[in-house]
Amino acid sequence: MTTIEEAVYFKMVSDADLFELVGTRVYPLFVPQDVPLPAIAYQKISSVKHQAHAESSHLAMSRFQFTIEADDYADAKDTAEALRNCWDSFAGFVGNTQGGLTIQGTTIENEMDGENIGASGQQTTPLIVVPVVRMDVSVWHFE
Q: How far apart are CA 119 and CA 104, in angstroms?
């Protein structure tokens, strides 16, 4: 069975506009230091299971936070627009012949600009600041 995390990854790398900008540079938890930018990190920040009377309905609402890192602010905002279009009011099957998951619906909950501080390439190089856009998306799905 496909997990919601696998479905989220597959949805992003399968979106043509987003793929044009980041390819498969989509990572769980954090963007590695030595990858070309822009890139996206994703993490599940909460998951609420809904009850139906005395037992589980198997319906869950998982909230994901996406962190877009880019070389400059314009690239971060362009990537954020593609990510927003990927997730805005999406519902449907995500997967391939080996498996998948049906997403019941999505809602973009929040979007904010910021920065990340990290090492540029080699550990001996100085720290750099990169612009980021963070986006929170609620994803309804069955488990």
A: 39
Predicted TM-score (pTM) of this structure? 0.87
Element (H, E) at 89: none
52 vs 6, residue with greater confidence:
6
Q: Which residues contact 125 (CB under 8 A, 6 or more apart)?
A: 119
Give the DSSP letter string of 50-83: EEETTEEEEEEEEEEEEEEE-SSHHHHHHHHHHH
Quick check: 127 pLDDT over 90? no
Query: Where do the domains of the chain lie, and which CATH numbers do they carry?
Result: 4-142 (3.30.2000)
Contacts with 44 (C-beta within 8 Å, 6 or more apart), sequence order: 4, 5, 62, 63, 64
Q: Using 50, 70 and 90 to split pLDDT, how confident is the model at 15?
A: very high
CA 10 to chain centroid, in Å, comes to 10
